[in-house]
């Protein structure tokens, strides 16, 4: 599903954000990516999104070597990924329904398909009753549910969540984790970068730890660890 082989990414200022990284994530895995600030987590996500390119090594997504794809094919690669961010990134002038529908419109889905899919994902994240609300009328947890619904509406093969509970109180954070668990159970691979020690420790999922651009730990049922 996701494979990194000997990936090196050095920024122009000489910082080696990733230094010979090897990772293999199978379809259906749930993986926490942990590491202190500056360890290289965001760089890894940006490489998968093809926002930046590696200096060395190979990256595969759904069996495609994404280091080789042309600029024209980048949207196709990005469609394999649904992204969720700490700060939700919803469009404030659109309703919940419209925010999700918009993600389908921009990839050219038909109106019929949109009418079919949006209520489904809204139901999945438990927000059918908020379809006509605007983001500023929702709690943080509800906004994050909308952003998850938007991320999965085009059926990505992998959901990447960058610190998705970072802005939420502990109870709401757990509600979001349950939504992510649910989506994973339905077959979507989930990769979540996080600093939320208690969540990682309780969930007992695979943990990949980065430190100074290197993988320092990869445990099947891991914990957050004490090195950070
Ligand atoms: N555009 C850039 N130009 C130069 N250096 C960068 C750039 N982006 C990141 N870095 C450096 O690369 C290293 C890895 O950064 P990265 O953002 O990947 O870390 P991170 O693990 O995501 O951190 P955080 O938990 O704070 O988000 C850091 O030393 C950072 O300062």
Automatic annotation (TrEMBL):
GO terms for molecular function: ATP binding; ATP hydrolysis activity; transmembrane transporter activity. Residues 2-227 form the ABC transporter domain. PROSITE patterns: ABC_TRANSPORTER_1, ABC_TRANSPORTER_2. It holds the Pfam family ABC_tran. GO terms for cellular component: plasma membrane. Homodimer. Forms a membrane-associated complex with FtsX. This is Cell division ATP-binding protein FtsE. It comes from Anaeromonas frigoriresistens.
């Amino acid at each position: 599903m996701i494979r990194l082989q000997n990936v090196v990414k050095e920024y122009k200022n000489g910082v080696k954000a990733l230094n010979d990284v090897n990772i293999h994530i199978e379809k259906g895995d749930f993986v926490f990516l942990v590491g202190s600030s500056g360890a290289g987590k965001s760089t890894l996500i940006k490489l998968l999104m093809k926002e930046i390119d590696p200096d060395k090594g190979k990256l595969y997504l759904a069996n495609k070597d994404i280091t080789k794809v042309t600029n024209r094919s980048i949207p196709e690669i990005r469609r394999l990924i649904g992204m969720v961010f700490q700060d939700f990134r919803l469009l404030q002038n659109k309703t919940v329904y419209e925010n999700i529908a918009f993600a389908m419109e921009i990839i050219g889905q038909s109106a019929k398909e949109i009418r079919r899919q949006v209520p489904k994902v809204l139901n999945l994240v438990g927000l059918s009753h908020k379809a006509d609300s605007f983001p500023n009328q929702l709690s943080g947890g509800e906004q994050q549910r909308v952003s998850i619904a938007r991320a999965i509406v085009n059926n990505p093969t992998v959901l990447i969540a960058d610190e998705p509970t970072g802005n939420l109180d502990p109870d709401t954070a757990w509600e979001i984790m349950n939504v992510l668990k649910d989506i994973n159970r339905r077959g979507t691979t989930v990769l979540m970068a996080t600093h939320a020690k208690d969540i990682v420790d309780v969930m007992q999922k695979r943990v990949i730890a980065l430190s100074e651009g290197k993988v320092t730990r990869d445990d099947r049922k891991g914990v957050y660890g004490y090195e950070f």
